[in-house]
Amino acid sequence: MCSRFLVSCLIGLAGIVVAACNQGPHVALAAEQSGRPDVIDSALDPGVDHSLSSTDPRVAAYLNNPDAVNTGKRLFSQYNCSGCHSSGGGGMGPDLMDDVWIYGSRLEQIHQTLVDGRPNGMPSWGEKVPDEQLWQLAAYVRSLSLPETLAAQTDNTPSQTPAPVPPSVEKDAGWAPPQGTTNDYTTTVTGAD
Amino acid sequence: MRTAVLILSVAPALVLAQTLPAPVPENEVFKREDIGHALAAPTPEAGRTAPSSANAPKDDGQWVMPAKNYASTRFSSLTEITTSNVKDLKPEFSFSLAVNKGQEAAPIVADNTLYVVTAYPNIVYALDLTKPGAPIKWIFSPKPAPASQGLACCDVVNRGGSVDNGKYIFSTLDGQTIAVDVKTGRALWRTQLGNINKGETMTMAPTVADGRVYVGDSGGEMGVHGWMAALDENTGKLIWRGYDTGPDSEVLIGADFRPHYPGEQGKDLGVSSWPAQAWEIGGGATWGWITFDPELNLLYQGVGNPGPWNHEQRPGDNKWTAGIFARDPATGSARWFYQYSPHDEHDYDGVNEQILLDMPFAGKMQKVLVHIDRNGYVYVIERSTGTVLSADPYGPVNSTRGVDLETGRPIINPEKQTKLGTTVSNICPTASGAKDWNPSSFSPQTGLIYIPHENMCMDWMSTQVNYIAGTPYVGALVHMKPGPGGNRGVLTAWDPVQRRPVWEDPENFPVWSATLATAGDIVFYGTMDGWFKAVNAHNGELLWRYKVDSGIISQPVSYRGPDGHQYIAVLSGVGGWSGAVVSGPVDPRDGSAALGMVNAMSDLPKYTTAGGTLYVFSLPR
After folding, report:
1. Per-residue pLDDT tens over the stretch A125-143
2. Distance, in angstroms, between A162 CA and closest chain B CA?
3. Which ipTM score applies to this complex?
4. Are A60 and B565 in contact (CB under 8 A)?
5. Any catalytic annotation for residue B221?
6. How far is CA A182 from each of CA A187, A188, A191, B555, rounded to the nearest angstrom?
7. Which domains does chain B have, with CATH numbers?
């Protein structure tokens, strides 16, 4: 069964190992030995918590961290991210202020986007930009659509004081049933968006 | 259910429109009478303005190249549709392009087949006009590299192809020029010319003439080393490539280069008018119009803006950007050059159309090209020498105080020079120009040029920018706004002899479609909110309009069908730079998004949605 999808099988196994040993110090070691960051696989909805996903231990340092988002904001201009994504509203590249996450919204997923690039024009920055800075950029990108950041918007200009990323958004930032529904496939909600 | 029910982070629903900025006050721009200049007073008695028959042969009812003919008149001599019956115009058929991005191409009609190329992924459709409903003859899918989408500054547009000698010839976003056999729909040759890893894409419509295909690159916002190239029409082999910056040997400047103005004379100006090495990443892309002149055997090549936009990083004239080359078609060797915007500070590309006319000036008929520049001036240029005969503003202008016809240089207004770290407000015209790429038409019956354009200004703050290959090299935070009066677009009927507008039709949104003039004395154009309009060529009166499925930013054409009747064809599909707020994933809450265009266009999503459809109209029978 695995032969045809060998790569994804390996990825899946790696994920299980990581998930099982999440607290162990040798997990990070394993990732280092393989010479690449943990690969995260997806359920049908990218970003939804599921059994094969891991939480990269490196994420924690960038949560509740105002310095990380502020540094990320500065790097966002210095590395020309702003050339494509403007002040967050997009242009050559997608809008980063809306609630659409094509490849997932967790910091490790954003980080992976930065490291590997994406097929429709997002360049890859792994080994070109220090990893610390990629995490800071990921934190800033995540911050752009936080309600606190959006609330600080002035007319036609996105907030200049991005909010730090709270740990809560890491728990589940993927699809969830509309508020008020029970997702039991029988409930009708009226008047909801 | 394993996922948490609570949604812990929910961005608010997309805000559909931010506040539109107030229009720039009337007294912020200069008056046309005060800044327009000419070498001589108008002499209309010296003759009637018209293209030569070499450049605009007798109309055969086809439409084989985007500009209709080498004179680029976009004038159809078909007369069935008139000012009195156009009110009855009805859609004959429509065809979904299956691509919901900005559609800027002209439908092409040759041998009773209609060809159209879409925005990325640049699908070509051939439709059989001899059968009811114009069924598909073939579809050609070039499958350009998906990564090229991330290199296109202003939506993933394509400005069309041409039919010549049994081939449909066009370019792809990822930098290929391709010739498709019109009979089989299969590629005869494909030539890779652009390298997306260096920011090069291709969006312009090739010009095909005398067995050669003339093309150029896009990427003026990506730090490219701009160029144009000639390919053998039969083999696709590169014949020559001329760069737009750098040493004379690369620019193809040799002994027969005779520019009119002293500022363009000297050795290797494409190097010495830049800081060390800056020319290598200085832009100067050829993404607009290349015009072939069979009469004088010259090519006219419009060259785009210098990069980066932050001009303080590139002191000097930045030759040979934001100007026009006349080149030898066989060798590419430059004959003359004129720089519309030396050391451009406002993104005023020089790529707009060149209309080739015989026109009365200073008491005699002269061979001119009329160019309607981004910088806000209509230039009438004697085209054998590159001498500017007149330059007059047709839109809001305050970045310059006219063009000095002694030196050829615009007179800079220091108050509107852009600066590092400081916002300079109310600069007119805006970065996309008083008019962008979308071409005008010329009617020999009225002698007028129908200019589809913008009425927009901007606030600009330059920022420091680093060159990183394959990423934008811009360095500016721009916020656009409506020009005086608040209407963001205008259709202007311009008299090139008298140097003044004859009538103007204001539009709410920038007019980003080309115009089509017909011998029925009608001008057709489309609006970004989805109206396809016909107006009287003499006075601009609205005669007919039809609401299509999405905004129009393309090039309408007219042809004679197999049944002998006149048809009008146009693509809908909003997008492009001005429509990115609809066709992109672009957020109206960020006014600086899409290079500052969103600030002035945040209400467009209330008027139109993305689309992409071919519409063909005719009179009822």
Report:
1. 999 999 999 999 999 999 9
2. 14
3. 0.89
4. no
5. yes
6. 7, 9, 15, 52
7. 26-618 (2.140.10.10)
